[in-house]
Amino acid sequence: MRSRWIRSLLLFVLLVRASVATAADRPNVIVIVADDLGWNDVGFHGGNIDTPSLDRLAAEGVELNRFYTTPICSPTRAALMTGRDPMRLGVAYGVIMSWDNNGIHPDEHFLPQSFKAAGYQTAMVGKWHLGHAQMTYHPNQRGFDHFYGHLHTEVGFYPPFAVQGGKDFQRNGESIDGEGYETFLLADEASRVIRERDKSKPIFLYMPFIAPHTPLDAPQELQDKYEDIDTDLAPTRAKQTDDTRRLSKILMQPSARPMYAAVVDAMDQAIGQVLDTLDAEQIADDTIVLFFSDNGGAAYSVGGADNAPLRGGKGETFEGGIRVVSVMRWPDQLKGGARMTDIMTAMDVFPTLAEAAGIEAQNRRKFDGRSLWPAIAEGKPMPREDLVFFGAEMMRPGSFHLTAFDDEWKLIQEIEQSQLDVTVTNYLFRPGEDPNEFNNLAQAHPDVVQELSRAIYDWRALHPVNGSHNYLVPPPGWRAPKDWATYPIPLDDLQEGPARGMAPSDLLKRALDAQHEERGRLVYDCQPKWWLGGVCLQGD
């Protein structure tokens, strides 16, 4: 009996050692996200802003030439973290504003949680923007051992890093004072995390910059460097965006381009510092670095970005709003200077990184994304077999920009809702033949328009009825906290499960959900079954 117990103990020890060795052999992973970077604002796309660090990543890695995101911020981050469609998550149409109390459902499994379960140490440095009203939404509750940064967007590039007058800079839930330029502070912290990591474990680091989001600001020497940059940008060929530029010129407002360029240059320097830290720690070859922008560049007047030759920009589903700069480097596995031309989306990042790192994704709900690792690592063609959907509610409630596309067709719908009518403008393109969207084929192919329109209609019906929408002001009389680190309701002060809502029972809730039809979902993560009269079988 004793010898059997000893053999069992030795077997257990060997298994533990084997699992530790496996974890130690896995690559480090760093995901860097820019905020509103333009397609034409990097050197390897021919831009006139100095981006040697990003150019280095492209030269030493694989350019993901058809990487797509949503047209606005929070939905892209939600897709990245979950591998799932922001429409079903309830954050497709608008960003999470400081006066909102929503976030991503706590039952959704996040990317760093899977890496943590596989033995990784996890850290986040930068901008969150996925919920702040209660601790269930906080980065430290979503898989990050360490969080340094901001819960919100638009905190500015210099102290006091405030949102609506409330301070927003913290380390793991505790408010801190940061002195200096925000972009460089993030680089310092990311470099410190890398240097001081537990060297017996791989590290997963998420580094979402504020840059180059408005309000733009940069060190004076960088402002001086770009004071004479060309500000005569090519038209975006998107009416609302070009109208803002035209109005700005009429009002004789200074161009945002010089300051924007300075902000991008500073971000590139910060990325360079992180890459240098990897080199100094002699772990660059064993580290996956993925870079992309959260949406297309803010090409409107105060944004300063340039997406040429792509059409449109941030907030729009033209290519300039959703096709973004992206590269992946892993010297140990990927040949430098390559380019992948298959469609990849923010929803594909989670499954792709999991396969690349050799870890098991722990998600319970089905991914809407897929792994593109074979296409990245081996050049294996991976054509789309399903449609990609993205959308946003523009600056006015009821003004939507939507798209459905695959390798062959892309439909864009501009929808304007007033109190009495709805106007829909359709744009149909063949991305393979017309990547810059010059030729609208909607009238020539009404059957394709009808088919893709119906697909968009069905997709939008997945949206939770109380999901996010784009409102530019808070509820009347709402006040911001003095310090956002104190704002999230602690876990101990929250009830154990999600609130049920007004329906007195689950059965009645499902019946009411079916009656909502295309208006949206009462039951979370519901996929209505037509053969059951619209009642769903899944959901919480």
Question: Would you kindly provide a written description of the structure presented here, covering whatever features stand out?
Answer:
There is one protein chain. With 540 residues, the protein is of the alpha/beta class. The chain folds into two domains: 29-378, Alkaline Phosphatase, subunit A, CATH 3.40.720; 503-540, no CATH class. It has 14 helices and 19 strands. Strands 9-8-5-4-10-1-11-13-2-14 form a ten-stranded mixed beta sheet, with helices on both faces. The longest helix is centred in the first third of the chain and has 24 residues, at 2-25.
Which helices and strands, and how do they pair?
Blueprint: H1 2-25, E1 28-34, H2 52-60, E2 62-64, E3 67-68, H3 73-82, H4 86-89, H5 111-117, E4 121-127, E5 146-150, E6 162-163, E7 166-167, E8 170-171, E9 174-175, H6 182-195, E10 203-208, H7 220-225, H8 239-250, H9 257-280, E11 287-293, H10 319-322, E12 323-324, E13 326-329, E14 338-340, E15 344-345, H11 349-357, H12 373-378, E16 388-393, E17 399-405, E18 410-417, E19 422-429, H13 446-460, H14 506-516
Parallel strand pairs: 1-10, 1-11, 2-14, 3-15, 4-5, 4-10
Antiparallel strand pairs: 2-13, 3-12, 5-8, 6-7, 8-9, 11-13, 16-17, 17-18, 18-19
Helix pairs in contact: 6-9
What would you say about this model in short?
The protein has 540 residues and is an alpha/beta fold. The protein contains 14 helices and 19 strands.
CATH topological fold name of the largest domain = Alkaline Phosphatase, subunit A
Mean pLDDT, all residues = 94
Percentage of helical residues?
Answer: 25-40%
Most strands sheet: 10 strands, mixed
Q: Low-confidence parts lasting 5 or more residues at pLDDT below 50?
A: 12-21
> Given the helix and strand composition, which structural class is it?
alpha/beta
Q: List the strand order in the largest sheet.
A: 9-8-5-4-10-1-11-13-2-14
Terminal CA distance: 48 Å
Mass-distribution shape: globular
Q: What is the rounded Rg?
A: 23 Å
Strand content: 15-25%
CATH class category name of the largest domain: Alpha Beta
Tell me the number of structural domains. 2
Give the strand tally. 19
Tell me the CATH superfamily of the largest domain: Alkaline Phosphatase, subunit A
What is the correct CATH architecture of the largest domain? Answer: 3-Layer(aba) Sandwich
Give the oligomeric state of the chains in this entry, treating copies of one chain as homo and distinct chains as hetero: single chain
- Summed up, the helix count is 14
